[in-house]
Amino acid sequence: MVDEACRLLGYEDPELLRYRGTDLQILEFFEQKRGNFAPLTNWLVRRLDVPDDAIKHSRVHAALAALINSARFYTTNYDDLVERSLKLAGREVKVIASERDMGMGDRMVEVVKFHGDFDNPDAMVFSEGHYYKRLRLDGPLDLKLRSDLLNRVALFVGYSFRDLNIGFLFDMLNEMLKSLPGSATGKRAYIVVNNPSDFEYTLFRKRNMEIIPTYGDDRTASLADVLEQIAS
User: Fold this and answer.
1) Is residue 192 a contact partner of residue 212, using CB atoms and an 8 Å limit?
2) pLDDT at residue 180 greater than cutoff 70
3) How many CA atoms lie within 13 A of 183 on its CB side?
């Protein structure tokens, strides 16, 4: 996405801008120069126009949809692939992107779009300024997340300390859960990490998060293996 932003701004080599600032700062620069993110949003919509057959044949999405004991999925992705995979598996879905969307039927699965989506472009988190605002964690979706983290065991997939707001969320999660050992394992949060090293084990252990390790070069297949084991 950042490469496309650079191209739209007339920079053929994105590294020229990366020499000046971070990816998030480049996106903030894009907003200032172009007035909004509509060109990027339209580009993303075209890129993420995925047919149903492709979703059905995705092991990861099929495995997520098969987690029948999971009634709530949080995602920072803008696309609709998670909710579509659930619907294709015959599950009833409610998308939550703002406070007005909250409330669900007993049989419905919630997909919480933590960084907005294409149907809610004003809530989409793109730039450094957006992330800093998100780090306040004081909006309706943030309060919902805090409530869910206190009432459920959380599994994080596809995140690392490199994610700006996720690192902050991990610390907040640790503060919330370190005095709440009331689960069968004593753990309330797990994260799937590919080829973990002492670095990951040490930092996640400090945050009272248990690593579920995967190994090999094919991260997607390894993740699918873990999710399929959980679903079985």
Assistant:
1) yes
2) no
3) 18
Residue 195, token pair as written in the block: 């080829």
φ, ψ dihedrals at 136, nearest 5°: -65, -30
Mean pLDDT computed over 165-183:
66
Q: Which residue has the tokens 């002492």?
A: 198
The identity of residue 28, as a single letter, is E
Question: In percent, how much of the chain has pLDDT > 70?
Answer: 90
What single DSSP character describes residue 106? T
Helix 23-34, helix 38-47: angle, nearest 10: 120
Within 13 Å, how many C-alpha atoms sit on residue 19's CB side? 5
21 touches 53 (CB < 8 A) = no
Q: Which residues pair with 214 in a beta bridge?
A: 194
Q: Give the residue ranges of DSSP H helices in the chain.
A: 2-8, 15-18, 23-34, 38-47, 52-56, 59-65, 81-88, 128-134, 140-151, 164-177, 198-206, 219-231
Kindly state the tokens that stand for 194.
Answer: 């590919």
Of residues 83, 132, 75, 129, the one with CA closest to residue 108: 83
pLDDT at 145 over 60: yes
- CA distance linking residue 91 with residue 88, whole number of Å: 7
| Residue 218 falls in which region: left (phi positive, over 0), alpha (psi -120 to 50) or beta | beta
- Per-residue pLDDT, averaged over 189-207, amounts to 89
* pTM (2 d.p.): 0.85
The length of the chain in residues reads: 232
